[in-house]
């Protein structure tokens, strides 16, 4: 019995340590990418910067509820799913605005910052790989990092497209793709969290 408790405590300490590391990485990349996206007038970089900010908040919430009940963790995951859906809706609206009023972004800045962001997200995803099959709270953390790495590859591809075409359309296409990915991930997390909340309610003893 004591051995089991010791194992759980060690796993909890490791989870906290990993979440703190990726929280610092993501908060730092938000600052870098937000400044670069504004300077380069890139929707894809601005979207990715907001994603880093959202992920930082997600990791902070995950840390807060890590040792709490399943209901707490599922509730926080449900809230994160709602935020991811909102993020997707914002990107859709921003894509429409940029399609009407935007100019071609700076491809060199997009490519360089996209590569740096990819490195940050690959490191984060590797650290969080153990959470991919966890509860909805930890699975949301894993999905955030995985989606970000995919988004960074798309940003780098968009930079090449902008450079070759001298138009903003590759940048806009990536923005729309990231919006769709955020909507899918948010809906997936909400479904799992709702299932966990129903299971917790069914398992609760009657008053």
Describe it.
By secondary structure, the chain is mostly helical. The chain has a single domain, classed as Alpha-lytic protease prodomain-like. It is built from 6 helices and no strands. It has helices at 2-40, 43-65, 70-101, 107-127, 136-165, 169-203. The mean pLDDT is 77.
Question: What is this structure, in a nutshell?
Answer:
The protein is mainly alpha-helical and 207 residues long. The protein has helices at 2-40, 43-65, 70-101, 107-127, 136-165, 169-203. The protein is built from six helices and no strands.
**What order do the helices and strands follow?**
HHHHHH
In the CATH hierarchy, the architecture is Up-down Bundle
Extract low-pLDDT stretches: none
* Mean of all residue-level pLDDT scores: 77
Q: What percent of residues are in strands?
A: under 5%
| Assigned CATH superfamily | Cation efflux protein transmembrane domain
User: Count the helices. How many?
Assistant: 6
Instruction: Give the strand tally.
Output: 0
Top-tier CATH class:
Mainly Alpha
Write the layout of secondary structure elements.
Elements: H1 2-40, H2 43-65, H3 70-101, H4 107-127, H5 136-165, H6 169-203
Descriptive labels:
207 residues; mainly alpha; Alpha-lytic protease prodomain-like; 6 helices; 87% helix
